[in-house]
Design a protein that fits this description.
Blueprint (H helix, E strand, L loop, with lengths): L3 E2 L3 E4 L6 H8 L5 H4 L7 H12 L4 E6 L7 E7 L8 E8 L8 H15 L5 E6 L4 H9 L3 E11 L5 E10 H8 L1
Helix pairs in contact: 1-3
Length: about 180
C-alpha cells in the first residue's frame, strides 16, 4: 500500500497498535453519530471495526507529520452508486480535537490525487447526511459537485433511515482544479 504525504500530514496503512488512538476519538459522541455510526464502546470493538473496514490497501490513518498519534481515517471504498464505472467513494472521520484546521480537506485532496493519478479513476463520489455540515464544507472545498439527495437511503446505528447527499468529481473537473 502507498503512503501519502502532504505539507502537514502523513497517511499510512493501519497497524494493530492504532486501535487505542482510533478508539480514543471514535468513542466521542460528537464524532460518529453525526455520520451515522455509534460511538465505539471498547478498544476491542474498535479492533473489529478496523479489521472489517480499514485493513485494506486504499485505507489510511491520518497523522500529523512527525507524530505517531493517529487522529483520523480516510479511505477509498466501493462506490455503491456506480458499480460499472471506474469509481471509488471517499469516506473519512477525524478526531474532534482537530476539527476546523483544514486537516480533512488536505487529506481528502491528497486521496483524490491518489485516486485519479495512481488508480486511474474516472470519477470519485462522496456522500454525507444533511446534518453533517462539517463534512459538507470539506466536500465543497475539494471541488465536488452536488448530484442530489437520495431520501431514506441509509440506516444509521439507532435504526433510523437518513437521507444521503450525493456528490462527485470527474477526472476532468479534478484536472481543471489542479491547473
Amino acid at each position: 500500500m502507498s503512503t501519502i504525504t502532504t505539507e502537514r500530514l502523513y497517511l499510512s496503512n493501519f497497524k494493530e497498535s492504532d486501535a487505542a488512538d482510533f478508539y480514543e476519538y471514535a468513542k466521542n459522541p460528537n464524532v460518529g453519530p453525526i455520520a451515522g455510526w455509534a460511538p465505539h464502546k471498547s478498544v476491542e470493538d474498535t479492533q473489529e471495526i478496523m479489521k472489517a473496514w480499514f485493513m485494506h490497501e486504499n485505507a489510511w490513518t491520518i497523522r500529523l507529520q512527525g507524530e505517531e498519534k493517529m487522529i483520523g481515517v480516510i479511505a477509498l471504498e466501493h462506490d455503491k452508486y456506480r458499480p460499472d464505472a471506474k469509481s471509488k467513494e471517499i469516506g473519512y472521520s477525524l478526531s474532534e480535537d482537530y476539527w476546523g484546521r483544514g486537516i480533512m480537506t488536505e487529506a481528502c485532496k491528497a486521496v483524490m490525487k491518489y485516486g485519479f493519478e495512481e488508480l486511474d479513476l474516472e470519477i470519485i463520489g462522496i456522500c454525507t447526511g444533511e446534518v453533517n455540515k462539517r463534512s459538507q464544507r470539506v466536500i465543497e472545498k475539494c471541488g465536488f459537485q452536488f448530484e442530489g439527495k437520495i431520501r431514506k437511503t441509509y440506516e444509521v446505528y439507532d435504526g433510523t433511515l437518513r437521507d444521503s447527499l450525493v456528490f462527485s468529481i470527474l477526472r476532468e473537473e479534478y484536472d481543471a482544479l489542479e491547473k
